[in-house]
Design a protein that fits this description.
18% helix, Peptidoglycan synthesis regulatory factor (PBP3), Domain 2, 84 residues, alpha+beta
Amino acid sequence: VQLGVAQPMLVSVPRGRYNDLKPSIDVPKTLEAPFTAGQQIGTVKVTLDGKVIAEAPLVAVAAVEQAGFFKRLWDSFWMWWESE
């Protein structure tokens, strides 16, 4: 699933500190469709000197339908395999 922010993130930082910004994302390890466009999936945070200075929801860019039976079966097998 493609993720993005619903609104642009604007961050004010002191001059010369742009390279010190640290973006991070928090999303579940596994995702199961269906998803609607705009549905929140996770969070993006921007930190400076260890302090969160901006935070926004990560949303599904487009809708994702649930897969068919055999695709779900295959995906379940792989999720089980990777958890072992």
